[in-house]
Amino acid sequence: MRRILPFLCVMLAIGLYACAPATPPDDAAPTDDIITPSPSPLATQTPSIFPVLIDVTLYLPEDSGEGLVAVTAQAEDSPQGLITALVAAGALPEVNYGRNITLSVENETLTYDGTEKSGVFVHLDLSDAFAQSIKQSDVAKERLILQSLANTFLTRYGADGFLLSIEGTDLETTTQRYNRPLSFDELAPTLSTDPATTK
Prior knowledge:
- The protein is an alpha+beta fold and 199 residues long.
- The chain has helices at 4-19, 32-35, 41-49, 79-88, 128-135, 139-157, and strands spanning 53-61, 68-76, 102-112, 115-126, 161-166, 169-172, 177-178.
- The strands form two sheets. A five-stranded mixed sheet has the order 3-4-5-6-7, with helices on one face.
- Helix 4 (79-88) crosses helix 6 (139-157).
- The longest helix has 19 residues, at 139-157.
C-alpha cells in the first residue's frame, strides 16, 4: 500500500500537468488572428439584397380607356416583380397580392370549349384580394386590367395563352367566368404609339 500511494500521486501530478493549458512564451507576439474580429456575415450578403432588374414590356391602359399601350420598364425578374411594376404604373389595383403568388410556364395541350389547343401556357395564381378588386370594376376596366396582366406575362414568358386563377379556383366576376386561357389582345387591343402610324 505504501508503494502504491506515491505512484498514484506521481500519476495524478502528470495528468494535471498534461491537461493544463499551454502558455505562450513571453517573447511571442500576439497574432492578427487573435485580435482581429472575424468579418460580419452581412458584408458578404449585402449585394444579394438588391434585386436583379431586367428590361420588360408592360402593357398599360391607355388614357382614353380604349386599349393598351406598350412601354418598356425595369422590373425584378419574377412574377412578383412584374406585378409590382404593373401596380406602380397604375395598370393593376393596389391590393395585397399575397405572399404565395405562384407561376408556372408549361408546354401542354389543353381542352376547353370542346377543342384542344397545344402550346406554351402561363399559369398565374393570385390572392382573393385581387379578385374582389376586379369585381368592383366596370366591364371595360375589368377587361383592360386582365388584358394588361395577360399581355405582360405572355410577352415576358413567350407564351401562347394565359391562365389566371384565384387561390386555386377560376376567377369569376359579375359578368364572366375566366376558365380558359386568354390570348394576346383578346379582351382589349394594344394601340400603336408610333407617331408614323398614329392618325
